[in-house]
Amino acid sequence: MDFILMTLGLLPAKDLTDSMQKSKTLTIMVVVGLILFGGFVLFLVHMAGKQ
Prior knowledge:
This protein has about 50 residues and is mainly α. It has 3 helices and no strands. The chain is about 85% helix and about 0% strand.
């Protein structure tokens, strides 16, 4: 999960993991955000397949 954000250059992995270890809320927000983003990508792929 952190590897994806680090690879995209969106967030420094070490800082994000340190913050996520301290904050359960941040961890939940990151996980939910990744799930929603993945769902959106799958939705776009599904809609593109109907064209």
